[in-house]
Fold:
Amino acid sequence: MDSEMRVKVLSIKHKTSDVIEVCLCLAAKQYQFLFSLERDVTDSQFISLTEEREFSQLFAFNVHISSQVLRLVVKAINGEVLNFPVDVGCFYSGEEALAQQKYFIEN
Structure:
């Protein structure tokens, strides 16, 4: 693909104890998204992670990217050291993404 658009995670930072900011680069443009942690009241372990609506909308047809970003966020929450930038995949248009999904389903 000649016009391949790679997505890279540039940073993952705690804004507060329950909010994480993820900085991404897509086609030379930077984006920042917030993820909210919900913690169990009794033992403070995190139990769910919610992303901003804009993140979900941008990657609606690129689930492979959103899942990789979420994996990195969980690693950061767990204290793992990450070496940025991290390439998380190729961004596809809606039509390209559906073609990719069809290929994986058929094979």
Summary: The chain has three helices and five strands. The beta strands are 5-16, 19-26, 29-39, 46-51, 86-91. Residues 61 and 101 are 9 Å apart (CA to CA). The longest helix spans residues 63-77.
